[in-house]
Amino acid sequence: MRKKSISFALAVFxxxxxxxxxxxxxxxxxxxxxxxxxxxxxxxxxxxIIEIDAAVFVPDASKVPLYAVAPRKYNMEELRAMxxxxxxxxxxEGDEDFKVQHQTIGPDSTFEHWxxxxxxxxxxxxxxxxxxxxxxxxxxxxxxxxLPDGSIVSAHAEYDLQQVIGEGYYFANLSAQPLNRQPVGTxxxxxxxxxxxxxxxxxxxxxxxLAGAAILKNEIIVKGSAKAASxxxxxxxxxxxxxxxxxxxxxxxxxxxxxFIEPTQxxxxxxxxxxxxxxxLMFNWPHDVTGVLEENAALLSFPQVMDIAxxxxxxxxxxxxxxxxxxxxxxxxxxxxxxxxxQKQNPRQFQLVPVWDFFGTVNLAGNNTVKWDWAYNxxxxxxxxxxxxxDRNYGY
Length: 396
Hints:
Oligomer: single chain
Structural class: alpha+beta
Distance between the termini: 34 Å
Number of helices: 5
């Protein structure tokens, strides 16, 4: 028993040492993380193969604090700044403040809440083929649903160009393709698109950083349908998240909805840019950093993380062997960053914790071949402090 106590004390001491300042070492050096890694794994049956040929991204941080964060309502100043950035030189008009509707328990609602909404519209009108009369060339909507205790159920703000029958339109929530080429039909460079998006985001949401970029297809709008086949043109889509010592990692997808109430999501700003400029701008789930829970968290070394991944990654995807004869997983990007998760003491309060995300593609071979190859497809997420697996579908 005494030997176990000494071993435990030594382990705690080593973790405390790791939490000290890095000195002259970078965080990557401290964690013994290489710039890239190549290795293979497989399931017990050999039918599931994990091939890793990945770049390893570790931010240049001197420490890794844990932050408390909380979703909040929009304020009119930031929404006006967002509108100014999105509409640009185009004149617009609309609500000066939120319209508020109080919904009590009754035939139309199972819970008491408030709906708040506002609309801003371009003064320029265009024919769309979707209505007899001309419609604004662009609009911006903002909505909030909140509960009597002040908690936020949903918060969404979006600017977009008007949908026109027979023309392309960007559905910014759709999965995008990796940015490994120039978007078809777009001449603007990525650097110029980034400058446009950076300036817009900085105008209404300082303290955010670019967390990813991809290629998004236009969808041709047809009468009587929300969208039709993709057009031959594409644009850039850029993702911005909260950033402190580490950025909050962007991964495609949202937390799954519960049976009773929609869960809160992590803050995300999405900007779609092509030769016309900003085509779509979304600012969803604004959050505030409300405190520091720990000044400098102790992290597992990268070899320890990879040891955990070697055991759990094949196990996670081997379940598909029941439906497919072969499962091939390719990991191209391993990234350290923050993720928003519930606090253990109070699941309705949130914190930013450091995690490792393994991004890549999945091929399922059987009677029908299935491929998951969209941009920022997180295959596996590990808590960087204790090595526990995190399911991004559930947010913890």
